[in-house]
Amino acid sequence: MTKEIDPATVTDGFHLVVDALKLNGIDTIYGVAGIPITDLARLAHAEGLKYIGFRHEQAAGNAAAIAGYLTQKPGICLTVSAPGFLNGMLALANATTNCFPMILISGSSNRAIVDLEQGDYEELDQLNAARPYAKAAYRVNNPEDIGTGIARAIHAALSGRPGGVYLDLTADVLSAVIERQAAANSLVKVIDPAPRQIPAPESITRALDLLAEAQRPLIILGKGAAYAQADAAIRGFIETTGIPFLPMSMAKGLLPDNHPQSAASARSLAIGQADVVMLIGARLNWLLSHGKGKTWSPSTRFVQVDISPTEIDSNRPIAAPVIGDIASVMAAFAAALKPGRIKPNTAWVDALSATKQKNAERMAQRLNADPSPMNFSSALRAVRNALANRPDVYIVNEGANTLDFARNIIDMYQPRQRLDSGTWGIMGVGMGYAIAAAVVSGKPVVAIEGDSAFGFSGMEIETICRYRLPVITLVFNNNGIYRGDTDGKSPSPTGFVTNARYDKLIEAFGGAGYHVTDTPSLTKALSDALEAAKPALINVVIDPSAGTESGHIQNLNPKRAVAH
Ligand code: ADP
Ligand code: MG
């Protein structure tokens, strides 16, 4: 040592980062250790923060993002420089796209060398690389600015429409020595990082007037409504007005799927015939056909409740925008609503009920078939049976057909317990989301995964086993992407090794593997695994010819115009 360091009078950047996070109520870090942040991870762990170490930064980032969605606190992902940073960036971009609050903290190499492109170890201009995909991006260049940097990142992640924030910490800042008193003085405890946004009273009146005129109103609930944690107020408004509602996939369970006002199983009729649609925390993006095309009526008028004023008119003109946070907006609606003023037409409610009934019967027929090998419907019926008395279970879901079928077959009864491919229709979020859901809630998680989707983050089953998390992964194994058929020139672009035994993977790490080929053994395996509440993976063998290319979104898949 060249200089005498007295810990009574000085501290360093590593300690300041941990102190700043703790001061702001952040209790968990998801990351992958390495240069230059290994000591940061170690210190955080030693100082009582929960540190969950992953095998790949993308999964750690996805975990942080969904933790942010579940808790309304920014999820923290910690990575090394350049490659680790870029691995984490996918998750940051996905968080921004989905409006999840998250902070990606990456260590970075020597600025002087990076900026002159002199070829440092893991050299990359990370700050500028992050900007296009982040809601905000900051770099801390002085140790006394660490507190400010973290405070700004928290404000940016949580305020208004939540999103992903990048925070760049240089290796020099982390190891910099700073006088203890100056360090303490530099910390910032953020006050009110997600301030309420009270809607303008006239926007409330305008929306209620439009809804009062409606004959065939419909409410569409999005994951913004789930995020807002205004569950009772939303339910109160829906039940008081009697308006039918349609949940977007991650809003399932905000009101239970078996609620009499749910129009989920009469979706096409509801969307096609509604004269006024009220969007609550849902965007009119591709998931709703942009509000256009043959599924929608051109004369439908819209109410849109959103925190982001620039979302309005993005796809269809909005007759009654209501800008504010959903909790404040729903409180304002409740205060202004006169009993009996809003009332959907009885014929409308009856038409939806009749269609629901018809579609439920059709669905029951499909579900009750018992083909061998299993198909998506029969296997999911077996899963549904095992979940019947477990409303506490979180569901993670990704894949193509596995996603489409499970969304319709697996009902949700509580808010924010269905976590899926979201706004991008992304694959690879499965294990990261499952790990964070288990860490945040302490509840069991069932990840319903296509075999292809599972592969993107499959190595994280080691993480699940290491932390002994009650995550049960179901791999819907049809030997490939979409389906397991080949084009005769094996291996085909969409095919995998046939008859793979995914269950053996988890056994390598001490988890429980199950291999099932029929519905009774699937129900039993899942029930047993839920009972044990330990890491498990069930290899669910389904018909390789079950499944359609691109699932329910074949219309988005361009095809050759010329065959050869
Ligand atoms: P879904 O995919 O479920 O339809 P989206 O992600 O498209 O949902 O839409 C979520 C919307 O919710 C975004 O437009 C976002 O601005 C909005 N939002 C997020 N949090 C809040 C909140 N607390 N209050 C109001 N709107 C919110
Ligand atoms: Mg498959």
What does this structure look like?
The protein is an alpha/beta fold and 564 residues long. The protein has 3 domains: 10-186, 3-Layer(aba) Sandwich (Rossmann fold), CATH 3.40.50.970; 201-353, Rossmann fold; 369-552, Thiamin diphosphate (ThDP)-binding fold, Pyr/PP domains (Rossmann fold). Helices cover 40% and strands 16% of the residues. The chain contains 22 helices and 19 strands. The strands form 4 sheets. A 6-stranded parallel β-sheet has the order 3-2-4-5-7-6, sandwiched between helices. Helix 1 (13-23) runs parallel beside helix 7 and helix 3 crosses helix 18 (430-441). It is globular. The mean pLDDT is 96. Adenosine-5'-diphosphate binds at residues 98-99, 161, 222-224, 227-228, 248, 250-251, 281-283, 285, 287, 306-308, 311, 325-326, 423.
Q: Main traits of this protein?
A:
564 residues; alpha/beta; Rossmann fold; 3 domains; 16% strand; binds adenosine-5'-diphosphate; binds magnesium ion
The structural class is alpha/beta
Percent of residues in helices: 25-40%
Overall average pLDDT = 96
Number of strands: 19
Main sheet strand line-up: 3-2-4-5-7-6
First CA to last CA: what distance?
71 Å
